Amino acid sequence: MSPSWLSTAASIGMAVGPPLVYADQAISIVRKKDATGFSRDVCAILLIANITRCFFWLGEHFETALLVQSILMIAAQLALLYICILYRPRLSPEALGGSSRPLSFWQWTSYSQYIEFLAGLILCQAILFLIFGRSEVFVGALGFIALGLESTLPIPQLISNYRQRSLYGFRMSTLIGWAGGDSFKTVYFFLQHSPLQFKVCAIFQLSIDCAIVVQRIMYGTKPPLSAVLNEEDELEQALALAEE
């Protein structure tokens, strides 16, 4: 296989691979009818980061494969977000009627509220780009914001795993996709001489993936205590109803 075919195959894999990682996670949530174990903040990070990366591309035309990846990722995360809201955990802050976050950020009750926020984000970034789009400093800052934010992607999941002392609900396929995909893209960025922002952020993200792999070995995938207690409560209620 010639180097040009290898390059084309790598570009196609780079564009399509990362969005497909979340397909198995979405299928798992639908089957269980429960999004417990998957942090919805992952969707927030990927949506905001990839929207910003599209504006970064307008200022600095990096590889087309990476732009296509961003567009496909936005579509994939919008679908996954809808599924997560449809099957939100019973102990989620919005289900319990309270949130400790300012303005209940990313813990809203309806899907339309998320869409309104993203539409406002796109509008604000479009206005800023029209004003400062010719500034190299602004374009460079967009790149670091987009890729720096994306590099924090595994952190909410890392925290969620630590709090639960379990990776229950977090698909092994997603973890493999993260670690394998981030390893691949780190090598890809260096071989393709991508902008510095891509290289630095890819290395950081890969280090967090490794930490989650360690959590998988330490914690396993047993159900968290809260989930076990919920099941026991439901069983007690069912028995009480049966006795009546």
From TrEMBL:
Keyword Acyltransferase: no
The keyword Membrane is assigned to this record: yes
Annotated localization: Membrane
TM annotation in the entry: 66-87, 108-131, 137-155
Entry-linked InterPro entries: PQ-loop_rpt (IPR006603), SLC66/Scramblase_ANY1 (IPR052241)
Annotated Gene Ontology cellular component terms: cytosol; endosome; membrane; trans-Golgi network
Pfam families per record: PQ-loop
GO biological process, one term: retrograde transport, endosome to Golgi
SMART domains according to UniProt: CTNS
Name of the featured protein: PQ-loop repeat-containing protein 1
Entry keyword set: Membrane, Transmembrane, Transmembrane helix
Species, as recorded: Ephemerocybe angulata
Membrane topology qualifier: Multi-pass membrane protein
